[in-house]
Write a structure and sequence with these properties.
Elements: H1 4-16, H2 19-32, H3 47-62, E1 67-69, H4 72-78, H5 82-88, E2 104-110, H6 119-126, E3 130-137, E4 151-160, E5 163-173, E6 177-180, E7 206-208, E8 213-218, E9 221-226, H7 229-237, H8 246-255, H9 262-285, E10 290-291, H10 293-302, E11 311-317, H11 325-331, E12 336-342, E13 345-352, E14 357-365, E15 370-375, E16 381-387, E17 392-397, E18 400-405, H12 408-416, E19 436-441, H13 447-450, E20 451-453
Parallel strand pairs: 2-5, 11-14
Antiparallel strand pairs: 1-2, 3-4, 4-5, 5-6, 6-7, 8-9, 10-11, 12-13, 12-20, 13-14, 14-15, 15-16, 16-19, 17-18
The protein binds 2-acetamido-2-deoxy-beta-D-glucopyranose (2 copies).
Residues 1, 32-34, 39, 41-42, 93-94 line the site of one 2-acetamido-2-deoxy-beta-D-glucopyranose (NAG).
């Protein structure tokens, strides 16, 4: 069937809105196409999706919206051979990616490169789209001093007949990562209009690295996609973002005014520098980490670094351990201060920065809990700190995108007990934590290995 006839028939379909006819054409097409590959040149209900994506791209192209494809299903089909695709697939005869019969396709919009223009809604309507804009509070303005936050557009839906394009707006935060907000349908909104439960983005806020983009051609459409698709898809599954609890933090500071002494300010500045340096070093090694102990408590309780904590604490899964971590930190200017335990048991590393110590605790996973170990250098005594199992979420602390346990309250309570919300200045790591247990003594013969102090 010549391609030119397609739009005529589509128009006819639109007019008649005949489900029956769509059905017939669908089976007719299945009959024609070999091995279930959708034939670009033959008309089908699936083709409607391609048409909608094309119209959407025409529309955003006209308005210079910097969009790129983030649809996990479509990108998932591309993963192994993106390069090959770029070279070979110029308007191929088969519609492989945008004819998969889905209710929606997801794109991202970089807010930084886009100037808000209400004309977009008008143009969308002219093109036949039903258009929906969903807003939310701008978290970049929310903080300890201002909890109001102005409303910004977070999600757009462009719907045409049976297909919708979900456009997720990504905002740059602290100059070093991208954030998108949750999608909140208004109470009076037609839930059928937005296939909310099926959407891949928007159930919760997400954080991403700024992706490198690649202009490519997919099913004959010029489209930007993340250059490293598998990396992007890896980010999607771990993207959940938690906002700091600014309201609770403000209440905390009303009860316990912040320490603004020069000493405290100096410590915060050093802790921030150290955290940025540690993040760069661990990221370069591909080692995931999260805020632990006092650093996690500081984020959760007061959206800040606790000045009298005197160190920065990070957690890392032992399965992510890499032996080149020590030379990597040394190269970054942080010499090893002590190494307790070993990879198989209770490993803990401490690095020395100016006035701040960096403690890295390795976490061991068991059937129903996780734990990290402690060692007392002078006695060789071992300790064990137990935590309920948790997953990791992104958040922001000292202008850095970092991870924390998503179940933060459980993590904090395990470590600090129910009264974690009351500051404690004297803290003994061997006896104060709510979750500490004695765990025997290292055999004397192993001390040289498992107790290294520099
Ligand atoms: C697609 O359909 C057209 C017309 O129906 C046909 O000529 C062509 O051979 C088909 N291509 C494939 C790859 O099946
Ligand atoms: C893409 O990302 C993955 C995972 O982060 C990485 O292992 C791989 O080397 C990257 N590929 C390229 C070509 O950069």
């Amino acid at each position: 069937m010549p391609r030119i006839n397609k739009s005529v028939i589509l128009a006819l379909l639109t007019v008649t809105s005949s489900v029956f006819l769509l059905f017939q054409l669908y089976y007719y097409k299945q009959y024609l196409s070999k091995d279930g590959v959708h034939n670009f040149s033959s008309l089908s209900a699936n083709d409607a999706q391609w048409q909608v994506v094309k119209k959407f791209l025409d529309l955003v192209g006209r308005h210079n919206l910097p969009v790129y494809l983030i649809d996990p299903v479509t990108l998932g089909l591309l993963t192994p051979d993106t390069q090959q695709l770029r070279e070979s697939d110029t308007k191929g005869p088969n519609c492989k990616y945008f004819c998969a019969r889905r209710e929606f396709t997801t794109f991202a919009l970089l807010a930084k490169l886009w100037k808000y223009d209400a004309v977009l809604a008008k143009s969308a309507a002219e093109k036949g789209f039903e258009f929906l804009e969903l807003c939310g509070k701008d978290p970049r303005l929310a903080g300890m001093d201002d909890l109001s936050g102005t409303e910004i557009p977070l999600h757009f839906i462009f719907r045409l007949q049976s297909h919708a394009v979900h456009l997720v707006v990504f905002y740059e935060r602290s100059g070093n990562y991208l954030w998108h907000g949750p999608l909140r349908l208004k109470p009076n909104m037609d839930r059928k209009f937005v296939p909310f439960r099926k959407l891949d983005f928007g159930h919760q806020a997400g954080a991403y690295d700024r992706p490198e983009l690649l202009l490519t051609s997919i099913d004959g459409l010029e489209i930007r996609i993340p250059k490293n698709v598998s990396r992007f898809l890896g980010e999607v599954t771990n993207s959940r973002f938690l906002e700091c609890r600014y309201k609770e933090a403000r209440a905390f500071y009303q009860l316990y005014p912040d320490d603004t002494s020069q000493e405290a300010m100096e410590f915060r500045k050093n802790a921030k520098t150290l955290l940025h340096l540690a993040a760069r070093t661990l990221n370069s090694l591909g080692m995931r980490f999260w805020l632990s102990s006092g650093t996690c408590l500081g984020w959760f309780r007061q959206c800040s670094v606790i000045p009298h904590s005197k160190d920065v604490d990070l957690g890392i899964w032992i399965k992510d351990y890499r032996s080149d971590i020590i030379p990597a930190f040394q190269r970054a200017g942080l010499p090893l201060k002590h190494k307790f335990g070993k990879e198989e048991d209770s490993l803990e590393l401490s690095f020395q920065a100016q006035d701040v110590k960096l403690d890295i605790f390795f976490f061991y996973e068991e059937e129903d809990h996780v734990w990290n170990g402690g060692t007392q250098a002078k006695s060789g005594k071992k300790f064990k700190y137990m935590f309920p199992k948790f997953t990791l979420c992104w958040t922001e602390l000292v202008e850095l995108k970092v991870q924390v346990p998503c179940e933060t309250m459980d993590y904090i309570e395990a470590n600090y007990g129910k009264s974690w919300n009351v500051p404690v200045k004297t803290w003994d790591w061997k006896s104060s934590p709510a979750n500490v247990q004695e765990n025997g003594v290292w055999p004397v013969g192993e001390w040289d290995d498992v107790i290294q102090v520099y």
